[in-house]
Each structure stands twice: as structure tokens, then as C-alpha cells.
Amino acid sequence: MTFEQELEKRTQEVQETIYGYLPKETGCQKTILEAMNYSMTAGGKRLRPLLMRETYRMLGGEGTLVEPFMAAIEMIHTHSLIHDDLPAMDNDEYRRGRKTTHVVYGEAMAILAGDGLLNLAYETASRGFAMAPGDTRVGSALATLAAKTGVYGMMGGQAVDVESVGEPLDRERLHFIYRLKTGALIEASMMIGAILAGAVGEDILRIGQVAADVGLAFQIQDDILDVTGTQQILGKPINSDEKNHKTTYVTIEGLEKARADVEQISRRAIHTLDGMTGEKEFLRELILSLISRKK
Ligand code: GRG
User: Fold this and answer.
1) Local structure of 99: helix, strand or coil
2) pLDDT score, position 55
3) I want to staple 72 with a disulfide (CB 3.0 to 4.6 A). Which of 60, 90, 97, 121 is the partner?
4) Tens of pLDDT along 108-127?
5) Which residues contact 231 (CB under 8 A, 6 or more apart)?
6) How does DSSP assign 28-54, residue by residue?
7) How many beta carbons lie within 10 A of that of residue 223, not counting itself?
């Protein structure tokens, strides 16, 4: 099997796992449940749960304890996309190849669907307590999930991003935004995989470092694709950053340097990963493949 075929197969497996945790669209609150599922089932690369599961496996994790956390991280990520597309934020009409949630369900319902997914994520991850009673790894993984999502993680990065619109940004502030807005959830994904596999101390820190680099490279590539990609392949509009008067890595460094940096930062992530024990061939290939991703 080629790496691409293996990736397709593993992504499919991850998606099936996530689907098992989606709510049934019944009851008086049927509409919000539909709106939540609308976005969750719209596709997407499933990168974060995939990174979580691969890190878990690499560090010797077995069984299903990681699964509710895989679903939870994709719910939080999807919540962030729904809110990021809202009129008050980027005001985008397409995401994952579909009309955005607020376009289909209206703004109020999209806000609620985003909030619903954010909360469902914690409800779902909390199932880990019943799966492994008394196991401290579950609490530690949950604390990591919450910390990386909140104001010291993704939400904090988004807040600084929103505040910086239309202003010239220096490199340091841009790095801060990227590390939190995009990097924090990728860090959560890999660190939770490591924690649930039973990793401790230095290994968790190293995985966090790998993930921080993967996240930074991922966001720079996102900036590159916003100016070089196509809506058909990306499933979302291009030139969104320019439309929203955003300073990006590409506007500061130029396209060529941005491309070179994606490669260099990704190779640094792989170098750190190589210093760790465990079967890591798939993770290495995955990080390498992100350098030239088109979507
Ligand atoms: C509720 C206070 C509050 C905040 C919401 C909106 C928000 C916080 C955060 C936005 C974070 C964000 C959208 C960062 C961009 C990250 C990014 C590059 C997303 C695209 O990820 P992909 O390419 O998407 O993995 P798919 O669709 O493949 O899953």
C-alpha cells in the first residue's frame, strides 16, 4: 500500500470513530443537532484526531480509550470553524465544500451549534472516566484539552488575531497568534495521544514540541494556500485574508520564504520525532506530506 492509500484508509477509520459519537437528530432541539452534524459530516481532513491516534499508537497505546478524545478534538476544531466563518469574524460562505453553517441555519443557530459542539466535546471526552475508572491519565488528558482550547490556547490566539485586523503585525505577534490559534489544538491532539498512551515528563514535552512545529508549518501553509490554492480543492474561498485585511506570514515574508520555512519547520518536527522511541514511520510520512498539501 502507498502512503496515500494508507492515509485514506486511516482517515476513513478515524472518521467512522468520530461518527459514532455524533448526536442523534431527534427531540425538540432537533435543529441545533442537525446544524452540529451538518458541519461535522461535511468532510475535512480529520488531521487532529489522526495525529492523536497515531501518537497514541506510536507510544504504545492500545484499546479504545483514545477514541472519545479523538471525537472531542474534532468537535472543538469544528466549533472553531463554524465561529470563524461567522459574519462577525471572517464572514465566509463556504467551508469544507459546503455552504457555511450560518448561511444554511442562520447566524443565531450557527452560534449555538458551535457552542453545542464545544460543550459536547467535553461531555464526550469525559466518557473516558467510565472507560478507565481511577486512571489519572484521563483527567490529565481532559485538562490538556481544556487548557489548549481556552484563552491560553486557541481562543486566546483568535482574540489577538481579531484585535489585530487591519493593523501591521510584527513577526513576534504573528508567531504568538499562530502558536495559539492553530498550534494549540494540534499540540492538544498529539499531547493527549501521548498522555493516554502512558507517556510522562520529557516525552510529553517533546511531543508538544513536534506538534508546535507541525502547527506553525500548517498555518503558514494555510496562508500560502489562501493565495495560491483554488476554492474547488480547498472547499473554502481563497483570498480570504486579503478580504479581511489580515497580515499573514506570506505578506510579511513573501511566498518563497514562506514555502522554505514550511519545509524547514516540518523537518525540524521530524528531527525531534526521530529522537523518540516507537514506530513512527506513518507519522513521519504524514508530517512530510503536509509540506506539499494542496488542501
Ligand atoms: C468561542 C470564544 C470562542 C472562540 C472561537 C473562532 C475560534 C475560536 C478560533 C478560530 C481558530 C481557527 C479557525 C484557526 C485556523 C486553523 C486552521 C488552519 C483551520 C483549518 O484546518 P483544516 O485545514 O480544516 O485542518 P479541515 O476542514 O480539513 O478540518
Assistant:
1) strand
2) 98
3) 121
4) 999 999 999 999 999 999 99
5) 94, 237, 238
6) TTHHHHHHHHHHHTS----HHHHHHHH
7) 23
Residues 17-32 have pLDDT tens digits of 999 999 999 999 999 9
* 167, pLDDT greater than 90: no
In the numeric block, the cell 483514545 is attached to: 66
CB 40 within 8 A of CB 49: no
Cell numbers linked to 101: 453553517
Specify the residue for cell string 513577526. 171
Residue 193 · residue 66 · CB < 8 Å: yes
11, 80, 101, best to mutate for ligand 1 pocket (most atoms within 8 Å of CB): 80
| Torsion 11-259-206-283 (CA) sign | positive
Q: Is the CB of 17 under 6 A from ligand 1?
A: no
Q: For residue 41, what is its C-alpha cell? A: 459530516
Is pTM beyond 0.85? Reply is yes
